[in-house]
Design goal:
Layout (H helix, E strand, L loop, with lengths): L2 E2 L20 E9 L4 E8 L3 H5 L1 H9 L14 E5 L13 E11 L5 E8 L3 H7 L4 E5 L6 E6 L8 E6 L8 H11 L4 E5 L1 H4 L9 E3 L2 H6 L5 E3 L4 H7 L2 E7 L10 H9 L1 H4 L14 H7 L21 H5 L3 E6 L9 E8 L2 E8 L2 H6 L9 H14 L3 H18 L3 H4 L5 H12 L4 H4 L2 H8 L7 E2 L2 E2 L27 H5 L4 H11 L5 H5 L9 H12 L5 H22 L27 H21 L4
Parallel strand pairs: 2-7, 8-13
Antiparallel strand pairs: 1-2, 2-3, 4-5, 4-7, 5-6, 8-9, 10-11, 10-13, 11-12, 14-15, 15-16, 17-18
Helix pairs in contact: 2-23, 13-16, 20-24, 22-23, 23-24
Length: 616
């Protein structure tokens, strides 16, 4: 928690002494050496807004100039932190962040890139209750380790207890969390799955964060920090689970209007269920299918109705019930949880459906059966892997075999659900390292990179690179850190200047919630988010200041990429992204010549800005 140095009143009391600058706050940082199990606590005065706001703003400043050659080196730092609104009573303020040099993200010179991964759930709230703002993990524990975090004495730092986690070995994610819940019923948890144990052969292992719904029902409903392979970084340090046992936040008066805007405003509308439109990211299936842009057979739309069984209305017409459920104290209810229908009611829980995993492990692999798809989503989650990276890499291997009449990875082929299921289990067990290394390394290994759907080693979400010249400048996944993935489908602009502006000015603003700790599905403006910060924390900040800080953080992250060796050859799309999509009604515009102009414009602007800011 951030502390006001001039008014250290009772924690959780209303802000009634006026707004204060960032330099009037402090934050708690813990350094943990897992090799020696030593913990060092610092209470640090904030020097700027980056320090005060936390999240990726503080972590990027901290890590941007750290030299890391091997992300799995014990000396490589793994940072866990919160945004300033994480764990507050501002609706959706639940996110926990993991930062470090990614085992997946890689420049052509072999150096890893700095990324982060974020997840909601209730874990971050428990960290906030313990006044833990940031933890920097280094070293490697001698044995599989469970870190139990609990409150210290009056005014004392949190207590860090290191316990043997060997009994978790090989167990599914939900089984691990339910076991830990039995031991610590007041805690919430961050855990890796089997894939994280086998990190050397799985570069996209995830971290699961427990939810109230999961602990109350026993169902496998955690939230995931999926992108970038941070479950592997935890595994490389032999840190298999964290249990945080802290109190929930106190109420703060004055948040009613802000929370109402988050809950019922225009920004979150597309993630809610409305009378005329079923919400959640699942709704994207219908929209993308109608314009012939839905990834099928490794991002190659067929222009047919073959994917219609995956549309939400089609699934609900089958033997399933879809319930809209939510994270702690959130009214948006973006979770679209699918259950087997039993006498018109929800029976057995099957899977939580989001657009990206749904499509990338179904139509992108030539699988169109909803029941099979629900099984695959559930299996990947339980094994602790990022379904985006895994689904894209599977699609690449299948496409390679189809084009070459080859038997790569046992001859994986589109629509072969039995082989897909076997491959998923083998990857998590570390038995298919070629597939577990991701599409970049696999495509370079076999010598065909033109249809490997990634930038900088990070696989594309289920949005076509053919229509998004902005993918290469996303810092931490194409649909989470650069809001250009939907622009062409919605706005249909094909002007070079439009795209340069979108990539350098509009797109990076999507990072705002990765700084403050709100969920991206809140989708509020900088002015509303600044108002939430003023009311909940007393920080003196305007919407314009917040927006500028977001752009500065993006610029710092870009400069870090340039520092470690990312150059123009890294900021490119796969060659086939510049060819027309045969089954799409969207006009083709992203030619190699067009993209070259965009790239020159973007990199000129960003290099000049980074140099002027002394980041480069």
């Amino acid at each position: 928690m951030l502390y006001d140095l001039r008014e250290l009143g009772e924690k959780g009391s209303d802000v009634d002494n006026g707004l204060k600058p960032a330099t009037d706050f402090e934050f708690n940082r813990y350094h943990v050496d897992l090799a020696t199990l030593e913990v060092r606590h610092e209470r640090i005065r904030c020097t700027d807004l980056e320090d005060a706001l936390g999240g990726i703003a503080r972590a990027t400043k901290l890590l941007a100039n750290v030299d890391v050659i091997d992300p799995y080196d014990p000396a490589a730092p793994l940072v866990m932190n919160l945004g300033l609104l994480s764990g507050t009573r501002v609706m959706t303020g639940l996110r926990t962040f993991f930062h470090g040099y990614s085992p997946l993200n890689q420049a052509k010179n072999g150096r890893p890139g700095l990324m982060w991964s974020a997840g909601s759930g209730h874990f971050g709230t428990k960290l906030r209750g313990l006044d833990i703002d940031e933890v920097i993990f280094t070293g490697r524990a001698e044995r599989p380790t469970l870190l139990h975090l609990s409150a210290g004495g009056d005014g004392e730092p949190a207590w860090f207890e290191f316990l043997d986690a060997s009994d978790l070995q090989g167990r599914m994610v939900n089984d691990r969390i339910q076991d830990l819940h039995g031991r610590y019923p007041e805690a919430h948890f961050a855990v890796i799955g089997p894939a994280g144990e086998n990190y050397e052969n799985v570069r996209y292992a995830s971290i699961a964060l427990s939810t109230d719904n999961q602990l109350e029902t026993g169902d496998a409903k955690p939230r995931y920090c999926g992108r970038g392979g941070y479950g592997g970084l935890m595994g490389s340090k032999n840190l298999w689970a964290i249990a945080a046992e802290g109190p929930n936040p106190d109420r703060v008066r004055g948040l009613r209007d802000v929370n109402k805007e988050i809950n019922l405003g225009e920004g979150s509308a597309r993630y809610r269920d409305l009378p005329h439109d079923r919400g959640g990211t699942w709704r994207n299936v219908k929209m993308m299918q109608e314009v012939g842009s839905l990834p099928e057979y490794n991002f190659a739309p067929t222009g047919t109705d073959v994917s219609l069984p995956l549309v939400r209305s089609s699934v609900e017409a089958g033997p399933y019930v879809v319930l809209d459920e939510s994270c702690f104290l959130c009214g948006i209810k973006c979770h679209k949880n699918v259950y087997t229908e039993v006498n018109g009611e929800a029976g057995e829980f099957r899977a939580k459906v989001d657009y990206e995993p749904l499509i990338l492990v179904s139509s992108n692999l030539g699988i169109f059966d909803p029941d099979t798809t629900l099984d695959l989503i559930h299996l990947i989650d339980e094994l602790g892997m990022d379904s985006i990276s895994l689904g894209v890499t599977l699609g690449y291997a299948m496409d390679y075999n189809r084009r070459n009449g080859a038997d790569l990875l046992g001859g994986l082929s589109f629509s072969d659900t039995e082989a897909v299921t076997g491959a998923i289990r083998a990857v998590a067990a570390g038995e298919l390292p070629e597939l577990g290394q991701g599409s970049k390394r696999l495509s370079e290994q076999v010598g065909e990179t033109a249809y490997a759907m990634h930038c900088k080693g990070v696989e594309f979400p289920a949005y076509q690179p053919h229509t998004n010249p902005g993918f290469p400048w996303a810092l931490a996944g194409g649909h989470m850190s650069m809001k250009t993935f939907f622009l062409y489908v919605i706005e249909r602009e094909i002007d070079v200047d439009y795209w340069v502006d979108a990539i350098t000015n509009r797109g990076p603003l999507f990072l705002m919630d990765d700084i403050t700790g709100l969920c991206k599905f809140a989708a509020v403006t900088p002015d509303v988010e600044a108002e939430a910060l003023r009311i909940a924390t007393g920080l003196d900040i305007s919407g314009d200041q917040l927006a500028q800080l977001v752009l500065d953080t993006f610029l710092r992250g870009y400069a870090c990429e340039r520092r470690v060796g990312f150059d123009a050859d890294d900021y490119r799309l796969p060659a086939e992204a510049h060819e027309p999509m045969a089954g799409s009604e969207l006009p083709h515009f992203n030619t190699p010549e067009f993209f070259d102009q965009v790239q020159r414009g973007v990199m000129t602007i960003l290099d000049e800005r980074a140099t002027a800011a002394a980041y480069m």
